[in-house]
Specification:
Elements (H helix, E strand, L loop, with lengths): L26 H4 E5 L23 E6 L2 E21 L5 E10 L7 E10 L6 E21 L8 E4 L1 E5 L1
Antiparallel strand pairs: 1-3, 2-7, 3-6, 3-8, 4-5, 4-6
This protein binds calcium ion.
The site of calcium ion has 10 residues, from loops.
Pfam family, one: F5_F8_type_C
Organism: Sulfurimicrobium lacus
Protein name: F5/8 type C domain-containing protein
Length: about 160
């Protein structure tokens, strides 16, 4: 008697976005996002729609200059990392991003990191960052995007963000 190999064939489809890791905090179910602006055709929903990578859907600010996104969690979260993606194909600009966290529902914020990135249509047009963190009891996470340091006529953009538990 022969035992049969237990097997499953799972075809890999080209072009599908990589699925989010299992330890990702579901932003839609666990947080409210407060933003300083959004543009009609590029709403905030695009940062959590699962569309990632170059050419993916993105949020574009409704106004030029610095923008702030505050993720207010329904219950305090332990955050082990942040992943974000930003694509800029149209203009050259120097972007500065700052993350701050609050553990008291937004009464006080503490800066956890600040990050610069240079976009250039002929060079870097897509930024993906994976930040390892060890944050406990986070009630609010604030992301401030300065789309162009020292020049306020650029628009902030964000294709994707995820928080790792
Ligand atoms: Ca997206």
């Amino acid at each position: 008697m022969h035992e049969k190999l237990r097997k499953k064939i799972i075809s890999s489809e080209a072009g599908t976005a990589t699925s989010a890791p299992a330890n990702t905090i579901d932003i839609i179910r666990n947080a409210e996002v407060i933003a300083t602006s959004e543009s009609e055709n590029f709403p905030l929903d695009n940062i959590v729609d699962g569309s990632t990578g170059p050419g993916s859907s993105q949020w574009v600010a409704g106004a030029t200059g610095p923008q702030t996104l505050v993720f207010k969690f329904d219950a305090p979260q332990n955050i082990a990392g942040i992943v974000y993606e930003i694509e800029e194909r149209e203009v050259a600009r120097t972007q500065e991003i700052c993350f701050e966290v609050s553990t008291d529902s937004g009464a006080h914020f503490r800066e956890i990191l600040r990050h610069e990135y240079n976009f250039s249509p002929d060079g870097s047009t897509f930024q993906r960052e994976e930040l390892k963190l060890d944050l406990a009891h986070v009630t609010d996470l604030k992301m401030t995007i300065k789309p162009d340091k020292g020049n306020l006529d650029r628009r902030a953009k964000l294709n994707h963000i995820a928080f790792l538990a």
